[in-house]
Amino acid sequence: MSETLLDFTNVEMTFPGSTVALRGVDLTVGRGEFVTVVGPSGCGKSTLLRIASGLETASDGTAQVSTDRIGYVFQDATLLPWRDVQANVELLAELNWQTKAVRSKKAAETIELVGLTGFEKHLPRQLSGGMRMRTSLARSLTLDPELFLFDEPFGALDEITREHLNDELLRLFVETRFAGLFITHSVSEAVYLSTRVVVMSGRPGHIVDQFEVPFDMPRDPDIRYTGAFAELVGQVSHALREGHH
Ligand code: ADP
After folding, report:
1. Radius of gyration for the chain, computed over Cα atoms and rounded to the nearest angstrom
2. pLDDT digits over 107-158, tens only?
3. Which alpha helices (H) appear in 26-158, and where do they start and end?
4. Of 181, 176, 106, which is closest to residue 148 (Cα–Cα)?
5. Strand, coil or helix: what is 238?
6. Which end of the chain is less enclosed by CB atoms within 10 A, N or C?
């Protein structure tokens, strides 16, 4: 068994005004697992990540996270427009009071990991959407996350950039073996990226089904064009439709 980094038992979330966002969510994510959550808009996926990150506290149940090295990547790259790539990537390390020498070395490493070497002096507005997202990934990687949370990070990108970043992310996952919890609207992205796909119902969100993804890591990009892949995408889509009612 892999070491469990996130362990949710019967997690409930009710917001003021009695919006029940989550009901009875049981979910574990271990080191070396990449778990993707799919579900209709408003079913509580972001809320789940916010609870995992400690930004929000569950109204009931237990939400245990056994690391404080948590990476969080949002749909928007959330870069500071006046800072170049290097300075944006150093930001989290800076907020953690690391010395200039340590953080610039770390930033150089993660900039290389995401393939942005040579763009250190570029400002966010001089970068493509994909490059901005890589910068955001590099910034999170400076914290050496053990638990990595992704809130639909590639949703706003075109398909080719998205597929490219999916492969980059898988490469990072194979290299560092963090525990990943990833939200997406794309069932094929979910199946391609993850070791397990979790399907949530409409609000109040609860887990209606989970699918282990049997394909090896590192993952062959051509797996996406096989019958076995299409079949699993079909099963997840079916569960998603069923859970919608
Ligand atoms: P998803 O990420 O699946 O689209 P969210 O987790 O963002 O869903 O939201 C789930 C539900 O909880 C939505 O109905 C949303 O309006 C509500 N909600 C989220 N955050 C708050 C909040 N801070 N206060 C009140 N309601 C909220």
Report:
1. 18
2. 999 999 888 999 999 999 999 999 999 999 999 999 999 999 999 999 888 8
3. 45-53, 85-95, 100-113, 129-141
4. 181
5. helix
6. N
Residue 195 has a CB neighbour count (10 Å cut-off) of 20
Return the CATH number at 180: 3.40.50.300
- How many A from CA of 204 to the centre of ligand 1? 10
The range of the structural domain enclosing residue 90 comes to 79-144
Sort strands 147-151 and 34-38 into parallel, antiparallel or unpaired.
unpaired
The DSSP code for 119 is -
Residue nearest to atom 13 of ligand 1 (CA): 42
Identify whether residues 63 and 173 lie together within a single domain.
yes
User: Are 150 and 104 members of one domain?
Assistant: no
Question: What six digits make up the tokens of 144?
Answer: 């050496």
Question: Where does ligand 1 bind, in terms of residues with CB under 6 Å?
Answer: 15, 19, 21, 39, 41-47, 203
HEC profile for 58-93?
CCEEEEEECCCCEEEECCCCCCCCCCCHHHHHHHHH
Best residue among 19, 49, 240 to mutate for probing ligand 1, ranked by most atoms within 8 Å of CB: 19
Does a structural domain hold residue 241? Answer: yes
